[in-house]
Design a protein that fits this description.
The longest helix has 22 residues, at 50-71. 30% of the residues are buried. The protein starts with a helix and ends with a helix. The chain is an all-alpha fold and 221 residues long. The chain is 27% helix and 0% strand.
Length: 221
Amino acid sequence: MSILLSVSLSSKLPPFSIPKAPLSYSKPLLDPSLSRNFDSATPQGNGINFDHLQLSVARGSFVALLSASLFFVDPALAFKGGGPYGAEVTRGQDLTGKDFSGKSLIKQDFKTSILRQANFKGAKLLGASFFDADLTGADLSDADLRGADFSLANVTKANLTNANLEGALATGNTSFRGSIITGADFTDVPLREDQRGYLCKAADGVNPTTGNATRETLLCN
């Protein structure tokens, strides 16, 4: 009886149809610049321009990848010291005989580099770091070396003629033995007594930039 009733009722029900979802898409809440791309996709402005969307996503991925590569870059490459070599690797390198004459190398990083016979004549090296570097026989004449760091550096047999080393650091085992220091200015350079002793034996001349006598800047007796 119940089976017949169910069949009877089902036979009288009208056919049930599933409504179809509209084919058009509503505009998502995105960046205004993307919204303009979406609006121009169709004449009615209610469709999605997938070419513009893919292009925007690609650009965003590229920017993210570039940012990540810059963030995780090698510290030596990341050093920014100004001048034409500011972005180059000059730290811990063999730069024997390299010509840096007349260059602007302010705050450049030459830590632990081999700079034998390198030419720095007339270069601007304010605040540059030569920490533990080998400057044997280097030409530093007429160079602006104010505030440069020569800590633990080997500056033997170098040419420091008329160089300005005001406020430079020379701590540790820094050696200037055998260097030409005619006209060099050592004002406020902290020197050990043995350093001062052998430098005073070779000191003479007046620095053409500061007008200071080399012997006076070394506090020679």
